[in-house]
Design brief:
By secondary structure, this protein is an alpha/beta fold. The chain folds into three domains: 17-175, Rossmann fold (3-Layer(aba) Sandwich); 203-378 and 408-425, Rossmann fold (3-Layer(aba) Sandwich); 430-524, ANL, C-terminal domain (GMP Synthetase, Chain A, domain 3), CATH 3.30.300. It has 16 helices and 27 strands. Strand 23 (430-432) and strand 24 (435-437) form a beta hairpin. Helix 5 (104-114) crosses helix 6 (126-133) and helix 11 crosses helix 12. The longest helix has 17 residues, at 46-62. The radius of gyration is 23 Å and the shape is globular. The chain starts with a strand and ends in a 7-residue tail after the last helix.
Length: 531
């Protein structure tokens, strides 16, 4: 059966994303702060931001960069991020946001695959950018530095962003078609080389409007995030959503608990966007009590499953509403979420389909719909689903079927309230003696142990060559003596016998993507260690 949102469909206007976000700017709006860097204090008001976007678009147009071209943006969160992003779009080109932690090889692959002509880069990434630009087949002809360039020279022309913004070339007249490419983010690449996800203006315009039930943003709202803006969660669900609502985006280049708490208190943030690892700190760390966090109204968690008990702990401690959202890069990203007006829904669920989204739950082997309450693969359809993978028709056909359904690769169930629950990734299920064991379920159990600061579970072969659940555990500071037997006994007392953890390895940190997803592949290839 097809599940639809309980909320009415939104009208998706036939405009470009920048026109939607900055259109109808009033005098009051123009004077509001649009973005501020919590670390440096650099900020832009809406009026100045819109003017700078136009200047950048004019400078790019004068360079011959426009419709059909791709510009890459290689930077951590900073006050210039929306300026560069929308300046590129306003010139008619598409933006390929790059993970700021990428190596030279990763960056070169994305630049080459995307066919990027120009690269906007933070000073911290300039050495990697210069090296990537020198690699064979990388097509960029200019690097624009978001600050002062470091000493030395690279293989292509280098320009300061400030010099482009001093341009007096008029912004080119661009008639954006809804099917024009707007963003070309790259998927996580945890199963191979990352693929370019083609997101159109219509995809992004639709999704920034579809997210409405999840937040209470209003003009003047303060929205704090250390979630990377180069990730589609940060790009659509935080930056562009807040700008559209005339809120202020308070950014941090990376997560640091003390700086995060200080920024929350200083900027009186009312919306906080996080991944589950930050929820752990907000629920348990004693430093939280040292800061006035009374301004927080909404905490939105996404990018990885959030356990219901952990969500409730954060709610109780902060006196705020905690909601969870779900999506993929391929869906711009949001397809599901817990609306702020539905406190009755299980906090551990991913909530309901967003407006305009249709969802199905199917048997991954047969493609047939499963009965309500039974697990199956989640399929989604809507105006936010990607155009396809760049130059990869085979991968596109495997991801989006002829009916327009995106195959998410996530196993879900639907409860009697209509809320969806993620069981696990299809490819991450552990097969133990014929039973299916979901790593996310065991991780949720492990995180309830007072001695566990963080955990991940993968399938690993035992002495008999059979796959068994293995836990990678980060001990909390309060429990340096926690041993493997205690961990296994704790889990065994709380799960069915076939789900028991049968090996434990203690680690200093769980490897995760910038968006907070566990990088299970890295754990699977770790050299064997004493457990």
């Amino acid at each position: 059966m097809i599940f639809r949102s309980p909320y009415p469909d939104v009208t998706v206007p036939a405009v470009g994303l920048s026109e939607l976000v900055f259109g109808e700017l009033t005098a009051d709006d123009a004077d509001r702060v649009a973005i501020v860097d919590a670390t440096t204090g650099e900020s832009h008001r809406f009026g100045g931001l819109v003017e700078a976007v136009g200047r950048l678009a004019g400078a790019l147009g004068a360079r011959g960069i426009g419709r059909g071209d791709v510009a890459a943006l290689f930077a951590p969160n900073c006050a210039a991020y929306p300026l560069v992003f929308h300046g590129i779009l306003s010139a008619g080109a598409a933006v390929s946001p790059v993970n700021a932690l990428y190596t030279q090889a990763d960056l070169a692959h994305q630049l080459r695959d995307a066919g990027a002509r120009i690269l906007f880069c933070s000073p911290a990434g300039l050495d990697r950018a210069r090296a990537a630009a020198a690699e064979p087949g990388v097509p960029i002809t200019e690097i624009v530095v978001l600050g002062e360039p470091a000493a030395g020279r690279g293989p292509v022309r280098e320009t300061r962003l400030a010099d482009l913004l001093a341009s007096h070339d008029p912004a080119p007249p661009v008639a954006v078609d809804g099917q024009d490419l707007a963003a070309l983010p790259y998927s996580s690449g945890t199963t191979g080389l990352a693929k370019g996800v083609q997101l159109t203006h219509r995809n992004l315009v639709a999704n920034v409007l579809q997210i409405h039930p999840l937040v209470r943003m209003r003009p003047g709202s303060r929205v704090l995030t250390a979630v990377p803006l180069f990730h589609i969660y940060g790009l659509t669900g935080i930056m562009n959503l807040a700008l559209l609502r005339r809120g202020c985006v308070v950014t941090m280049p990376r997560f640091d608990l003390v700086a995060f708490l200080a920024a929350l208190a200083e900027h009186r943030a009312d919306h906080v966007f996080i991944a589950p690892p930050v929820a752990l700190a907000l629920a348990h760390h004693p430093l939280v009590d040292d800061y006035d966090l009374s301004s927080i109204e909404i905490v939105l968690s996404a990018a990885a499953p959030l356990d219901a008990s952990l969500a409730r702990m954060v709610e109780d401690r902060l006196g705020a509403t905690v909601v969870q959202a779900y999506g993929l890069t391929e869906s711009s990203p949001c397809t599901h979420g817990i609306p702020v007006d539905r406190p009755d829904l299980d906090r551990g669920s991913i909530g309901l389909p967003m407006p305009n989204v249709e969802a199905r739950v199917v048997d991954p082997d047969t493609g047939e719909d499963v009965a309500v309450g039974k697990p199956g693969e989640l399929l989604c359809r809507g105006p936010n689903i990607m155009l396809g993978y760049l130059n990869n028709p085979g991968a596109t056909a495997a991801a989006v079927d002829e009916g327009g359904w995106l195959h998410t690769g996530d196993l879900v169930t639907v409860d009697t309230d209509g809320a969806f629950h993620v069981v696990d990734r299809l490819k991450e299920l552990i097969k133990y003696k014929g039973y299916q064991v979901a790593p996310a379920e065991l991780e949720a159990v492990l995180l309830t142990h007072d001695g566990v600061a963080d955990a991940a579970v993968v399938g690993t072969p035992n002495g008999d060559g059979e796959e068994v659940p293995k836990a990678f555990v980060v001990r909390s500071d309060a429990s340096p003596g926690l041993d493997a037997h205690a961990v296994m006994a704790f889990v065994a007392a709380r799960v069915a016998p076939y789900k028991k953890v049968r090996a434990v390895e203690f680690v200093d940190a769980i490897p995760k993507s910038a968006a907070g997803k566990i990088l299970r592949k890295e754990l699977r290839v770790r050299p064997a260690a004493t457990a």
